[in-house]
Amino acid sequence: MNTKKQLIRTPVKHPVRLASDMIRDELKALNLLGPSKPCEQTVATFLENDKALGDRYEKHPVTLQALNEGIPRERIVPLSVYFDGVQYTKNENFLGFYITNLRTPKQQRLVWLLRLSELCQCGCRGWCSVWPLLEAFREDVSSTDHEDHLRFAVVDFK
Fold first, then answer.
1. Cα–Cα distance, 100 to 106 (Å, whole number)
2. How far is the C-alpha of 59 from the C-alpha of 65, rounded, in Å?
3. What is the pLDDT of residues 73-129, one digit of tens each?
4. Beta-strand pair 93-101/108-115
5. Element counts in the chain: helices (H) and strands (E)
6. Is 16 exposed, middle or buried (0-12, 13-18, 19+ CB in 10 A)?
7. What is the phi-psi region of residue 16: left when phi exceeds 0, alpha when psi lies from -120 to 50, beta otherwise?
8. pLDDT tens digits for 14-40?
């Protein structure tokens, strides 16, 4: 990233929360993930919102591949991704990146914040700052190496 004070590219570390860890914690709190098999009534209640998603979820490539691999439907999580500007003070704003589990849509989860005053100044309009964070998110949700076989289907962008 190029900054106003330096003429060379400088690596900058931004704190990021792993989306997979946040969803995993949510599923554990709902007793859908853990050492014992979840109650069938709990699973049925949890999967009720899938009908509203229709083909965006049912025919999503991640959903189809996971079902072919024998992964239980409750471990294939439909996600919504949301970007928004967040005003902090009169002169300081942030770009917020949120996810929502579409089965439990009442709660948005903040993945990362990026201070707009710290965006790259190379002429990319901040893309050099946002791209690595989006890439880290993509690697996390597209990984098939999760020990509990979670899969994430991003079916909505806002």
1. 8
2. 10
3. 888 999 999 989 888 888 889 999 999 988 887 778 889 988 888 888 777 888 888
4. antiparallel
5. 6, 4
6. middle
7. beta
8. 888 999 999 999 888 888 888 888 888
Residue with tokens 């109650």: 39
Residue where the block lists tokens 């229709």: 54
Question: What is this structure's pTM?
Answer: 0.81
Please, which residues have CB within 8 angstroms of residue 29's CB and are 6 or more apart in sequence? Answer: none
Phi, psi of 14 (to 5 degrees): -115, 140
Please give the pLDDT value at position 49: 81
Name the one residue in this structure whose structure tokens are 């997979």.
20
Taking the CA of residue 121 as centre, how many other CA atoms within 13 Å lie in the half-sphere pointing to its CB? Answer: 10
5-9, 44-48, 149-153: which has the minimum mean pLDDT?
5-9
Mention every residue, 6+ apart, whose C-beta is less than 8 A from residue 137: 16, 19, 97, 111
The tokens 């770009």 sit on which residue? 95
Integer Cα distance of 150 and 142 in angstroms: 10
